[in-house]
Amino acid sequence: MPCQAYNTCGPNAECSAADHCPCLRGFEPKSEEEYSNGVWTQGCVRSSQLTCSERNVSMSGSDAFAVLSGVKLPDLAAWESAVISADACRQWCLANCTCNAYSYSGGTGCLTWAHELVDVYQFPSGQFPNGQGFDLHIKVPASLLEKLGVRGGKKRAGAALMLRPATMKAKHDLSGPKQPDQEVAENGDGCELPMFTLETLAAATGGFSEANKLGEGGFGLVYKGSLPGGEEVAVKRLSRSSGQGCQEFKNEVTLISELQHRNLVRILGCCIHGHEKMLVYEYMPNKSLDAFLFDPARRGLLDWKTRLHIIEGIARGLLYLHRDSRLRVVHRDLKASNILLDHEMNPKISDFGMARIFGGDKNQENTNRVVGTLGYMSPEYAMEGLFSVRSDVYSFGILILEIITGQKNSSFHNMEGSLNIVGYAWQMWNSDKGEQLIDPLIRASSSPSAAREALRCVHMALLCVQDHAGDRPDIPYVVLALGSDSSVLPMPRPPTFTLQCTSSDRDRFRGKAGDESYSACDLTVTMLQGR
């Protein structure tokens, strides 16, 4: 059917099952000639301008809404998460001259459209996912409603004209009583993001096919997708079985929409459809750091210059989170799989589902919900639930050691014992054998200056992973020291807390056929509580 093709009728028109593209109420064909010949791709334009846009103010009673019922909503909406009722959503749209339409339901909250209404179509009865479709409230001049017989003072202020029979009106509550996971849409913090429809993202990812699967995180799967315009995206689909998924989704939407930095992944939008919740990110063609670092076939592509570039980029991203952004953010799950790489191998910190905002003069918080990945957690956080910006510094120290050695912390072992990467790095560095920590794949080709830079990074990493948070440097110092080889670094304290996996433990937890890709010390923790 024609409506299965994206944006068949062009902007501001509705694709119908009758193979016709009527303009939305208040609009007329952009090209009458093409429209009469059945060529609809140019779509429609407003037949008369809104009063609000003419005077640049919102005048009560000047504009109203025509309601299109039982439809698939247009793409690229903005989610007004602070608006929590249908009436407040209508008033928000009336008061904002850029708002052309809105829709409100218990499952999605308040959605608004500031640009052309793209890819609107009427579902045949019973074929919409929720059985009925949505109501789209299109802003039109109040004079249009008067011409159609809607009169009277009470109707003029935000009046609505139904364009479908009353029996086709969609219910606002898509799934009966409010579900717990609707908290995101109803209790947001005022961020605005473009909204993608479930149908658009399903089409973009080939129906969330296994072939488009990029990876799996603690709270769901990530897929590669291609939008109708050809833009490649990464779609993070939240797992329905995740007990903490709603809070993490809310955190990620709130945080990433507020944070903008070249070393943080950029979010393009999100999707909320019943129990389905998804985030749409810019696509990173080189995927994540761990895909290079822990793959013997690809690790050699990371020469020392590239590794140092990645270390410095992660540090700059943390500097922005900890000090330079409007929000003060502790990531809490910094690890190699959460560092994405663009086509120029620039690192971008991702996955803010576990992040926390620090307000005022707070330097430390306590939680009984310890989340993160064992091996990257600081001792005070893993054991006592205490976290601060220096918890991220600890994780960053682990990352530096992994980048230099090319080995994963959780599967690290050596011929001299079963210490983790922190204990072994200290042992080698304190015995003046620090160069042995450099990945053999790059050690031979590294210049003397590169070796000195690597040893300085090892020194910095050992400062970052000290047992006590107060002994660790803050990230501004780390960035400054990494950018200068003239400053003298203090001596790190020897580690006393090292989470160890013995060889017998490793054999016991190793996967089938001796697979070392899994270790008991590499588990994502979602909650630790005392019995």
Automatic annotation (TrEMBL):
InterPro entries, alphabetized: Kinase-like_dom_sf, Pan_app, Prot_kinase_dom, Protein_kinase_ATP_BS, Ser-Thr/Tyr_kinase_cat_dom, Ser/Thr_kinase_AS
Membrane topology classification: Single-pass membrane protein; Single-pass type I membrane protein
Location relative to the cell: Cell membrane; Membrane
Gene Ontology MF: a single term: ATP binding
Main subcellular location: membrane
GO cellular component, one term: plasma membrane
Taxonomy of the source species: Eukaryota, Viridiplantae, Streptophyta, Embryophyta, Tracheophyta
Organism: Aegilops tauschii
PANTHER family: RECEPTOR-LIKE SERINE/THREONINE-PROTEIN KINASE SD1-8, RECEPTOR-LIKE SERINE_THREONINE-PROTEIN KINASE
Domain of life: Eukaryota
Keyword annotations: ATP-binding, Cell membrane, Disulfide bond, Glycoprotein, Kinase, Membrane, Nucleotide-binding, Receptor, Serine/threonine-protein kinase, Signal, Transferase, Transmembrane, Transmembrane helix
Name of this chain's protein: Putative serine/threonine-protein kinase receptor
Listed Pfam families: PAN_2, PK_Tyr_Ser-Thr
